[in-house]
Amino acid sequence: MKAMKAENTKAQEPFRVSTPWGPVSATLITLLAFLGSQIVGSLLVNIYPYLLGWDKTRADSWIKNSTWAQFFYIFIADVMVLLIIWLFLRHRKARASMIGIKRPHWVDVAYALSGFFVYMLAYLVLFNIVTAIIPSLDTNQKQELGYDTYTSGLALAGIFVSLVVLPPLVEETLFRGFLYSGLRSKIPKIAAAIVTSIIFAVMHLQFGSGNALLWIAALDTFVLSMVLVYLRDKTDSLWASIGLHMIKNLLAFSSIFIFHAV
């Protein structure tokens, strides 16, 4: 009887992900990587024109208006995030598979597509609930991307990489990979999912942009993150999450830069 009771108790315990880091380390390193990489990227992009001897007027114009300045800022920041995560994993002697970096499978595509429809439905439901409760919520506020919507040619390809390719790869590695795995090692799955999604949403409020906080984007990214976490759990991999994230960003990119220009 005692053996059966012990087995039943064990079966009821929540599944734990085993990682050599916990919630505190996961949260601190995530914030350091996400915010610190943006600071470094901004500094390097701002220094570049002065190293070339440009005057202040020309330098400011390039930093504010150049597609390539924004591209290199995003590229540098994303590389910094991956470098920080890689160094941390190496320091803790952890495998990349612990954060969901495994061999992709074709079924991940199906999960990504189905996840997109779940995300859209969940967002529409929550959007209607929130706007009914808070009618003053600005639902028309646009996210600052830092790019000219009428860009074409090679510059448009650079925008595609910096919006559709890099963010899904890097943000999924950081948030649904590293952060969620660290949280999941000590706290229940739903709590880890909610904390991960809140942090992810807060990071999209556009602090420091000079504009009002982008609450509608935070709502959107919170719902998206909850679905992304589910895919991370369901597949024990990041590829379905990356695929869904890419689909969402591709649709936004097409709407803003392709169809807008037609």
Any overview of this molecule?
It contains 9 helices and no strands. It has 262 residues and is an all-alpha fold. It has one domain (20-258). The longest helix has 31 residues, at 154-184. The radius of gyration is 20 Å and the shape is globular. Residues 1-15 have low confidence and may be disordered.
How would you describe this structure in keywords?
9 helices, 72% helix, disordered N terminus
Please give the structural blueprint.
Layout lengths: L1 H11 L10 H29 L4 H10 L1 H25 L15 H27 L20 H31 L4 H14 L12 H21 L3 H20 L4
Helix pairs in contact: 2-3, 2-4, 2-6, 4-6, 5-8, 5-9, 6-7, 6-8, 6-9, 7-8, 8-9
Radius of gyration: 20 Å
Residue fraction in strands: under 5%
SSE string: HHHHHHHHH
User: Structural class given helices, strands, pairing?
Assistant: mainly alpha
How is this structure best summarized?
The protein is an all-alpha fold.
